[in-house]
Amino acid sequence: MAEFSRAEVEAAWRRRIALQDADDWQGFGDTFTEDAVYIEHHWGTFVGRDKILAWLLPAMEKCQGWTYPTDWVNIDGNRVVHRWQNRLPGRRPDGTYYEFPGITVMVYAGSGRFSLQEDVYNPISAQKVIEEWQAAQPGRTGR
């Protein structure tokens, strides 16, 4: 595997974060190599950019208004590992966010593209936060 400079790897990661922050999920998906592997422990493993996009675009449509602040990032060679929050819109009455953490591991493959992404989070905690957030929405009664 070719080694890339830290500056190149970090620039590619920052570009992905900018696309994510802009809710440009097509652009985000285009940062995968043609043969990339996306491992999402709750939803499955997707092989190839087309299959990743076929899952990613509808999944992220359900997350309108969410943000994904980064807690920390570590770049080691071609590998990028970062911890983030899935932050839903609004705050609880006590001022805290409706959010749950996750960790992503990615492998940079050059030319601004990644060949692997693996997301790890606790789906039970995620569901609890989402249900709490849904219950707090004005005019919402039940599911």
Please characterize this protein's 3D structure.
By secondary structure, the chain is of the alpha+beta class. It has a single domain, classed as Nuclear Transport Factor 2, Chain: A. It contains 4 helices and 6 strands. It has helices spanning 6-21, 25-29, 49-61, 123-135, and strands at residues 32-40, 44-47, 70-76, 79-91, 97-110, 113-121. It has a 6-stranded mixed sheet. The longest helix has 16 residues, at 6-21. The chain is globular.
Radius of gyration: 16 Å
Question: Based on DSSP secondary structure assignment, what is the total number of beta strands?
Answer: 6
Q: Which outline best applies?
A: globular
How far is it from the N-terminal to the C-terminal residue, by CA? Answer: 48 Å
The overall pLDDT, averaged over residues, is 94
Poorly predicted regions: none
Order of helices and strands: HHEEHEEEEH
Individual helix count: 4
By CATH reckoning, the class would read Alpha Beta
Please identify the structural class as seen in this structure: alpha+beta
Which architecture name does CATH use?
Roll
CATH topology: Nuclear Transport Factor 2, Chain: A
Largest sheet: 6 strands, mixed
Read across the widest sheet, the strand sequence of neighbours is 2-1-6-5-4-3
Total domains: 1
The proportion of residues in beta strands is 35-45%
Question: What percentage of residues falls in helices of 4 or more residues?
Answer: 25-40%
List the helices and strands and how they pair.
Blueprint lengths: L5 H16 L3 H5 L2 E9 L3 E4 L1 H13 L8 E7 L2 E13 L5 E14 L2 E9 L1 H13 L8
Parallel strand pairs: 1-6
Antiparallel strand pairs: 1-2, 3-4, 4-5, 5-6
